[in-house]
Design brief:
- By secondary structure, the protein is an alpha/beta fold.
- About 40% of the residues lie in helices and about 15% in strands.
- It has eight helices and seven strands; from the N terminus they run E-H-E-H-E-H-E-H-E-H-E-H-H-E-H.
- Strands 3-2-1-4-6-5-7 form a seven-stranded mixed beta sheet, sandwiched between helices.
- Helix 5 (about 125-145) runs parallel beside helix 8 (about 210-230).
Length: about 230
């Protein structure tokens, strides 16, 4: 049986983090929530649900993910598969088995949950998110021959593949960096459609603000062009 650990970066997600953790299948070995310097009770809510909670003072999605990866690397028994998931309860954590199936079947080492329109709740993604994801997908197709439809945060990757990517982005570019490096290294990948709903509480730290949307867009496009010259 494969060992599956889940990483959830979280900043001020006290209203939803418990729902995310409780909805995960019991086949998950460990849920690692990275409290990214929250000012609410995210840490306490996650601990109540049995998650391992790490603290990362430096704000940024990438900072949080790297903190969790460092933790996994030091475990006595490393996981076989690592799943990344947001803490806002927009994804459906119970769909994790569908996400890892291509890995278990030997068809891929990396799988992205595709937030296709007919699987999304109306309004679940802002116009800026829809445009940004579509643009990223088009650019990756043109420049790398990729078949990704977007940059969904619900994703699974084998532990060995993840560590081999030498991830470095600290903020908004984490998801696209991972996909670009998978493409560059010619790792087998797949997409599976997943459901997506409106946030259950709070607001998006990226798409929920003009500054966040602009900065994320710049970072994502920057990574895509940067890797086209490598």
């Amino acid at each position: 049986m494969k060992l599956i650990d889940v990483i959830i970066p979280a900043y001020n997600e006290a209203g939803s983090i418990g729902k995310v953790i409780q909805a995960l299948p019991r086949t998950v070995r460990e849920v690692v929530v990275v409290n990214n310097n929250s000012t609410d009770t995210t840490q306490e809510e996650a601990q109540k649900c049995g998650a391992t909670v790490l603290f990362e003072e430096k704000k940024g999605y990438g900072h949080a993910c790297l903190k969790a990866m460092d933790y996994l690397e030091k475990k006595e028994v490393e996981p076989d598969i690592v799943v990344f998931l947001d803490g806002d309860y927009s994804d459906y954590p119970e769909e994790l088995p569908k996400l890892i199936d291509p890995i278990l079947e030997g068809k891929a080492v990396f799988v992205v949950g595709a937030r296709l329109k007919h699987f999304r709740e109306p309004g679940a993604m802002t116009p800026a998110q829809v445009f940004g994801n579509g643009l990223a997908a088009v650019l990756m197709k043109i420049m790398y021959g990729a078949k990704f439809t977007g940059l969904g945060p619900f994703r699974a990757i084998t532990y060995d593949a993840l560590m081999g990517l030498n991830m470095e982005d600290k903020t908004y570019g984490w998801t696209v960096e991972m996909q670009l490096k998978v493409l560059k290294k010619k790792m087998p990948y797949a997409e599976v459609p997943v459901k997506y709903r409106k946030r259950s509480a709070g607001f998006s730290k990226v798409s929920g603000t003009v500054k966040g949307s602009v900065m994320a867009g710049i970072k994502i496009i920057g990574w895509i062009f940067k890797y086209s010259f490598k």
